[in-house]
């Protein structure tokens, strides 16, 4: 059975949700192929929107918050793509929870697209397929939300693709102290305390987190990460949270900050991919090769991978 070739980026922009779904399925089957590399590098070079990385511990209400943010962005006329990273099935390797069951969206809305990806062999982290999907959807939508599982590798991974990192924390959970110990408080650009309708426990969590943020030195120079109280159920605080996210977008848009962040992310993703495939020694061998190599990040990764694979084959 033959499969249709991947469309180019211009064709994909006019293909709608069915076209994107087919392209993502084709990317899974043709991962690492020349056509996949061309499409992903074209998307990387032509970002349309911004990526919001949403992370936080299991049970904090990330999926409900994602649905609320989708509605808020759509109310402002923005198109939204969502990547939901799920735990992997030990039997199939696929996503266990699924997208539509987790995130409440209108399936008839042509400007909202939701896709689930399994964490695969990364503990809570983003698979290579999810990274590629985020880059592609960033070229097609005004807003892309990447929602992580919220354990293990997820916080570090989402920082490799998110323009803005939103950390969700629930009241009376002790998460603030645990995050300080784990260094997580250094990552977010905005923090949301969910379940604000609980009242005093939510306000206490906000105060604790504000103290933690001030001690962590989080945020880029010139940006102090705000902590917002929000209830996805009642809508309390949602407008304020969206304004915090927009304020960070404006901050990134000044003085070339967004371009610099994305450039650092692309290099870090490339190195992470090479280290995952060839180990620390392989990454050290790859760095001199990368230094003199031009082109998009996906083409550079493929070229260096071929070189390292050939070297390894010659040693056996």
Automatic annotation (TrEMBL):
GO cellular component: cytoplasm
Cited Gene3D superfamilies: P-loop containing nucleotide triphosphate hydrolases
The organism's place on the tree of life at top rank: Bacteria
Start and end residues of each AAA+ ATPase domain: 48-191
GO molecular function: GTP binding; GTPase activity
InterPro entries in UniProt: AAA+_ATPase, GTPase_ArgK, P-loop_NTPase
Pfam families tied to this protein: MeaB
Similarity comment: Belongs to the SIMIBI class G3E GTPase family. ArgK/MeaB subfamily.
Protein name: Methylmalonyl Co-A mutase-associated GTPase MeaB
Protein's organism: Hansschlegelia zhihuaiae
């Amino acid at each position: 059975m033959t499969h249709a070739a991947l469309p180019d980026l211009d064709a994909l922009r006019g293909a709608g949700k069915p076209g994107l779904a087919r392209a993502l399925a084709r990317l899974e089957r043709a991962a690492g192929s020349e056509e996949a590399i061309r499409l992903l590098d074209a998307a990387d070079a032509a970002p349309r929107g911004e990526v919001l990385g949403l992370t936080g511990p299991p049970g904090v209400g990330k999926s409900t918050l994602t649905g609320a943010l989708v509605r808020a962005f759509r109310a402002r006329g923005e198109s939204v793509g969502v990547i939901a990273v799920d735990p992997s099935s030990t039997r199939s390797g696929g996503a266990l929870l699924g997208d539509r069951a987790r995130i409440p969206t209108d399936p008839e809305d042509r400007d909202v697209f939701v896709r689930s990806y399994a964490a695969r062999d990364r503990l809570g982290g983003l698979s290579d397929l999810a990274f590629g999907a985020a880059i592609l959807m960033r070229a097609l939508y005004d807003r892309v939300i990447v929602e992580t599982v919220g354990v293990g590798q997820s916080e570090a991974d989402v920082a490799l693709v998110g323009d803005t990192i939103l950390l969700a924390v629930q009241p009376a959970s002790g998460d603030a102290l645990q995050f300080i110990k784990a260094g997580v408080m250094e990552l977010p650009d905005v923090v949301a305390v969910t379940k604000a309708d609980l009242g005093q426990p939510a306000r206490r969590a906000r105060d604790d987190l504000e103290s933690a943020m001030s001690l962590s030195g989080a945020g880029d120079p010139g940006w102090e990460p705000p902590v917002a109280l929000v209830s996805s159920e009642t809508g309390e605080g949602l407008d304020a949270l969206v304004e915090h996210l927009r304020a960070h977008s404006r901050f990134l848009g000044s003085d070339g900050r967004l371009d610099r962040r994305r450039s650092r992310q692309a290099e870090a993703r490339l190195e992470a991919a090479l280290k995952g495939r060839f180990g620390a020694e392989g990454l050290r061998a790859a760095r001199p090769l990368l230094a003199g190599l031009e082109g998009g990040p996906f083409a550079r990764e493929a070229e260096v991978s071929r070189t390292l694979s050939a070297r390894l084959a010659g040693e056996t």
